[in-house]
Description:
With 361 residues, the chain is α/β, with parallel strands linked by helices. 32% of the residues lie in helices and 22% in strands.
Amino acid sequence: xxxxxxxxxxxxxxxxxxxxxxxxxxxRAASYSTPTFPGNLSVTNCTHYVYDGVxxxxxxEIRILSSYDTASGxxxxxxxxxxxxxxxxxxxxxxxDGGKNLTNAIASRSxxxxxxxxxxxxxxxxxxVEIDRRTIDxxxxxxxxxxxxxxxxxxxxxxxxxxxxxxxFTDAYDITSLSLYADMINFHAYSFTSPLxxxxxxxxxxxxxxxxxxxxxxxxxxxxxxxxxxNKLNLVVVPYARTYVLVNESQRTVGSRSxxxxxxGPNTKRAGFLARYEFCSVLNDYxxxxxxxxxxxxxxxxxxxxxxxxxxxLGSKFIYAIDNGLAGVAIYSLDSDDxxxxxxxxxxxxxxxxxxxxSNP
Length: 361
Ligand SMILES: *[C@@H]1O[C@H](CO)[C@@H](O)[C@H](O)[C@H]1NC(C)=O
Ligand SMILES: *[C@@H]1O[C@H](CO)[C@@H](O)[C@H](O)[C@H]1NC(C)=O
Ligand SMILES: *[C@@H]1O[C@H](CO)[C@@H](O)[C@H](O)[C@H]1NC(C)=O
Ligand SMILES: *[C@@H]1O[C@H](CO)[C@@H](O)[C@H](O)[C@H]1NC(C)=O
Ligand SMILES: *[C@@H]1O[C@H](CO)[C@@H](O)[C@H](O)[C@H]1NC(C)=O
């Protein structure tokens, strides 16, 4: 009896003392020409790891999107448990099809999807599931009912529930229900400007420089005003770069005209996107400009224009998360961090930095 009490007290203390560092792994990284596997992440020190991504069908079935997952990905991911007291989640992703399947399944096959999720997290031994709702094409009441139902089902098997949200779409969510039923809300606060705007934009300004322009601070203010439980909210930061081609290389301030996304990186091969290690290997040719008010940095070389977080801008965000009493931070995703020390400051520098800030608040 005494032993049980002591254990409980100890567990409470460790929960209070630890802030979340939620680290995503994107399973597409396993098929890059120089791949990153979950096993490579064992040098990081996150409190939660999220395997991104598994799909669903509109009929509410779980859909494995890459044969790598069941061949060795899930198994390799499980080995991260050797890192200590960590939690492993699986992300039901929206970004491979704009979230349409998930939207349809939640709207019309919700009960079936809830059951399939419960079976899936047990079968593959995850601690929890994260529902990716970074889109706006869904019915917020249907999502609230679904999250409520899923919470009850997962509670029975002692599994956890997270939801990822797009920071700038405050009105798209029933924030009270998400706060009540989710164990964590991962607050994706970046890419506030649509690529369709045809202008170069800061990837993730901490503060707004112009009234009406979104930032981490302005979007968080809206969520807080709507009553979000901030002790469930993790501020998501991105290690990668957003890249553009300028229309006129002499017009390169934030908001200047863009002719489109920058060229794809040699390893990740997605237009407008460079992993941190890809940018570091060309960084020397670039000129740097920091936006001290917004808390951002951009780089340019001729018509190439790149927005990426620096250690300083990230440090400010981590302090901001602590000062605002958030649950912690999240990194989306580790495979786009400096996986091979191309920047010369140590592999997985962003994860390391999160550790430095969050373990000594
Ligand atoms: C990732 O791990 C594999 C072995 O599983 C290894 O061959 C590869 O070099 C590692 N990648 C990096 C960037 O360290
Ligand atoms: C992980 O974090 C703990 C606590 O902050 C620290 O003692 C340990 O050295 C870290 N390990 C690594 C590999 O960073
Ligand atoms: C969407 O559903 C279809 C079949 O219903 C499936 O083939 C596809 O993989 C699903 N996409 C995602 C991203 O889950
Ligand atoms: C952050 O947001 C709050 C709430 O809207 C606002 O009062 C404050 O001025 C903002 N901070 C900065 C530096 O813009
Ligand atoms: C590019 O911008 C510069 C500076 O604003 C301007 O002088 C020049 O005419 C522009 N070039 C073109 C082709 O529009």
